[in-house]
Each structure stands twice: as C-alpha cells, then as structure tokens.
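Q: Serine hydroxymethyltransferase, please. Structure only.
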Amino acid sequence: MHVPHLSHLATADPQLAGLIEDEATRQHDKLRMIASENYVSAAVLEATGTVLTNKYSEGYAGKRYYEGQQFVDPIEELARTRAEALFGVDHANVQPYSGSPANLAVFLAFLQPGDTFLSLELAHGGHLTHGSPVSATGKWFRPVHYAVDRATGRIDMDHVRELALAERPKMIICGGTAIPRTIDFPAFAAIAREVGAVLLADIAHIAGLIAGGAHPSPVGHADVISTTTHKTLRGPRGAMLMSTAEHATAIDKAVFPGLQGGPHNHTTAGIAVALGEAAQPSFRDYAAQVVANGKALAAALTERGFNLVSGGTDNHLILIDLTDKGVEGKPAAKALDRAGIELNFNTVPYDPRKPWNPSGIRLGTAAITTRGLTEEHMPQVATWYDEAITAVVKDDEATLDRVAGEVADLLAGFPMPGYATA
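A: Structure for Serine hydroxymethyltransferase:
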C-alpha cells in the first residue's frame, strides 16, 4: 500500500485513492528504467504533502507581496543555501516550476527575440527547450544546432567551435535529455569565451551524479546551470537555476516576475529535503552505484547484440538503436512495459524514422539503483530485455507475461520508498 497511508483520501474520494494505490503497486512491481524518473524518499513525500500547499508567496524571501511568510521564508532560504553548498555555486533559485520554464527563464534573462543560440539537436540528445521548432525557444529565437558524430555517437567539439565562430551565438547550451557520455564542460566554456557567449549547462539528467561526485561539474565553467530536482537528484518534480554572482539578479528577475507568480512552497520544502539527503556521504555511494550499474548493464546488453549509441555509457543513461533487431522503438517500449520493464521509445542520431515511432529506446539506472539493485543484477536485466524484444518480434505474449512475473519476484526483495507490502 501507499506510504503515507491514504486514509483521509480513501474516505473522501475512494476512486482516486484506488488509482493512486494501483500506481504505487505498479511502481513497486516494475523495473522503472525511464531515465528521467526515480523514487523520492518518504521524507520528501511527507514534505510535499503538507499545509505548505495552502500558502501563496510571490516574491523572494524578505521581499514578498503577501504577508504570513514567517515560516515560508526560512524554508525557501534553507533550500537555496543547501543548493549553493551542495553544488558550490554563488547563487541558486529554487522557484522554477519545472525544467522547461527554468530554461525559458535563462532565455528571458540573456536573449532578445530573434537572437542566435547554439545547442545540441533534439534528435541527437538535446531537449525540446533547446530550440525545437515546436518549442517557444525555437519559435522566438534563432537556434543553430550541433550534432553528434555519425561514427562515434559523440559530440565533436571541433564542430561546435566551427559553428560558434561562424554564427557568433549570444548563448551556447550544453547538456540534454539523451546524452550517455560525459559532457566536456571546460571545452564548451572555452568556446563560449572565444565568441563572447553565455554558457548554459543543462544538467537535469546528471545533477545527482554531479552532486555525488560521479560526473564532472560545470561549476567554474558555465555562467548559468539549470536542472530539474528529480531524476538522479531524487527530489520532487521541480527545478533550480544556479549561477555566478554576476548573473544572480538577472536570473531572479527572469523567474519572478518574468515568468512565474508564487512558488510552490510544498515543492520547495521537498527540494530542501532532497538536497539535504544528497549532502550525506551515502549519496556519494548511490551516485557511484548508478554509474556502475549503467556501465554493467551497457556491457551486458552489448554482449547480447544490442547496438548502443556511442558504444556504451558514462552515466545512468543508455540509448539503444533497435534497427538491427527488426523492431521499432514504440512497439518495443510497449512490449517491455508488458514485461514489467518501464522505459521510453526515443529517437537515435540520424534516425530515419519519425519521433512518434523512432528507431530507439532510452533507459536509465537511477531508479533501480535506489531500489538496491547492483552490478550483479544487470546481466539478468539484459536477459529480460533480450527476451522481451525477441518476444515482440515473434508476437509471443506468453514470454512477456513470464518476464513480468520474474521481474516482480525479484523486486519483492527490494523495498520501495513510499510503499509497504502490508
């Protein structure tokens, strides 16, 4: 059952309570391997479910537009100072509602409509808010995209520099949503300095790994850092912007009043809890285990004939091109879900297929590491992937059902935060 127990909700709205209980069971029984998902602690769950959701707090601590902020102000300051200490930055803003408006706030702070910026192509691992034609960032500004090398699947920094020198962008973005390799922050910073551009490091996927010392940090290289607070950081669904002292005022004004009204105080409290947890020595062990699991799973998948973009991973994320498996990404993802393995279909670099049914799948090891799985379990996970992909090609529902049962049996031995079996 869900923990904390939904006793009041079950009385007031049993239909909704039942759906939440079902979701808790689903999360418990499946290998949750969507690279952008994780499990929050019971403490984070409790913080986000408090009376803080009742309070409006437009403005910043000490400069609010509504009264009654005696306890909200220190909560937000606690989250902000914990972020600054954890990441070693001059300034942090913990108010953005999610990663997309956080990124948009950076555009508002530093660019004018029509200005040129440089970012990774969406189909090569970038993000919608890095200049996709369907995003406000692509409609209001002028994106120029760099790509990964066709042969290696890695970013060619010489190519990035050539584009930057030719286009003279006002901003350069590094980071994205499907990058399995270490981001070279110093190289991006050198290029940004050469052309006089602001460097934005989007670390949404790897923030927890950076906090835990398992990935190099952009601090000291990037002018501004954006991140979500869930994913590898294991906080609630929110976002943060961090910057040098020079850019603090511009960032704060872009968030409020530029884009948002009152912050979500219950989320801010959950972020504060998660940042406190990430500052503990045990979190460094967690981050290291996430990467170790990613590398072990990548090796096991390669042994089973899967084609991994860039040949492997340096972090939590693995991107697989299924072209030579005879199945597209969407049916593969749906089959794996039926087999108890949750992930998403995803484009791969130079993908000839459309994004709604691309050639690849994207998976990550952050959530299964939170459950306690280690390198020793990764060969079995790879075996289940192989069996499920083979089953969808053969339309073999029985195998998918069998794998789902085996997955649930394994996970019964690994507790889930927010769930109890009795």
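A: Brief note, in case it's useful. The first strand starts at residue 31 and ends at 32.
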